[in-house]
Amino acid sequence: MGRRAKENMMAKYLLLKHYRGGPAPVVDLPPADQWTPQEWDAHMQFMRDFGARLEETGEYVDAQALAPGGAFVRYDGEGRPPVTDGPFVETKDLIAGWYIIDVESWDRAVQLAGELSAAPGPGGKPIHEWLEVRPFLGDSPTVTE
Amino acid sequence: VNEPLLRDLVPAVIGVLVRRGADFASAEDAVQDALVEAVRGWPDDPPRDPKGWLVTVAWRKFLDAVRADTSRRQREVRIEGQSPPGPTETVDDTLQLYFLCAHPSLTPASAVALTLRAVGGLTTRQIAQAYLVPESTMAQRISRAKRTVSDVRFHQPGDVATVLRVLYLVFNEGYSGDVDLAAEAIRLTRQLAAMIDHEEVAGLLALMLLHHARRTARTSPDGRLVPLAEQDRSRWDTRLIAEGVSLLQAALARDRLGEFQAQAAIAALHADARWPASTGPSRSARRMDRGPDSPPWPSSTRPCRATPPPRRTCTSVTVTR
Fold first, then answer.
1. Using CA atoms, how far apart are residues A97 and A48, in angstroms rounded to an integer?
2. Residues sharing a CB contact under 8 Å with residue B154, sequence separation 6 or more, in sequence order
3. Is B137 close to A104, i.e. CB distance below 8 A?
4. Does the structure's ipTM exceed the value 0.85?
5. pLDDT tens, B140-196?
6. Closest residue of A to B231, CA-based?
7. Crossing angle, helix B135-148 and helix A37-57, to 10 degrees?
8. Interface check A78 vs B, CB under 8 A
9. Could you tell me which residues are beta bridge partners of residue A85?
10. What residues of A are in contact with residue B292 (Cβ under 8 Å)?
11. How far apart (Å, rounded) are the C-alpha atoms in residues B62 and B29?
12. Which residues lie closer than 8 Å to B209 by C-beta, 6 or more apart?
């Protein structure tokens, strides 16, 4: 996809939240189970409000949160059950959830990720979490040759 | 129901409602409601005058909406009664709708969405599917776009360049969902070309046809993109190519080159070559001032004002056929 498509058309981005992984945190947060219920509610409310604002601006595509459990699974040959590995004790990277947005530009995606990263944590202070911003692999525009 | 035929009528019907005093946003909503009714009712009971039917039903929907709105707010009824039956207005405001939906105050994405709905007659759901976003998101985008242009006077002259840009974006989106956006862009550009005599409109239509002609050859059965040099040329649609080339020749003959004509000229060179070797990028590049990768419109100038390459180069393009 050329720069032209990037500048002029809507593109989808994934804003990925991690339980762990990514660059070193800038705020030393206690584990989530040590937050008060009120702090947790405020955090979740912020997420819902963020999604509602995206809906209003016509940029919302999807949002989901993941439970920390689960496992890796793979095919193990004909007639054999799938092999599982997990739960994710060994992984240094663990995905917590995502927003998918459809926005005009990379800059807009970064701006929104910046807002999302200011979600409140303990004491109502912004958690400054690192969010991974990934463009979707789009279809090539028709006029490319 | 012949859906493309039905959708052809949409902009004209919106135009009639606006001419009768409806605001654009309400007129557009009313016509969408009437479309839904048409899709439901026409298979069993097709009207003799489809446009007249749509105007009548859309106007009734508009009045209903105004009345509901008015009674809710306890205001006086602003518009009385139903318009007299009879032949529908002959003035066609479709061109005005193109301009309004591509108004410079809109972002490209909003202009695209509004054009597909108000000019193309697609439903919000179809547009949402084509752009792979939830229907509610597309509905928001469209209603924000309508708010943005709500203060624009309907009959003020517009800029063809912005309309072309929107149609180009729709075309380039290609094909996803159950709506073929490339075909839709061609339909809308054809309609525009029939209404307005402008060399860049012809240029864009030619560009679309020349690319569309290669569509089936552009992807392999497994969905991989096939480069031009490896495409099976027997699968190109020669009828579309011939139409594109003839449109382009007529446009170039007027000697007012713009970006879309230039791009179409390059596409025509490729489409004309029976063997890949006879048109390489270097040959195209020699012939044209701008390479095929330059944007279709300069950021600061309008496409039709773009500095044309020297005259001789475009003439040489026209005679290659």
1. 13
2. B18, B24, B93, B96, B100
3. no
4. no
5. 999 999 999 988 887 777 889 999 999 998 998 866 556 789 999 999 999 999 999
6. A145
7. 60
8. no
9. A72
10. 145
11. 8
12. B186, B240, B241, B243, B244, B247
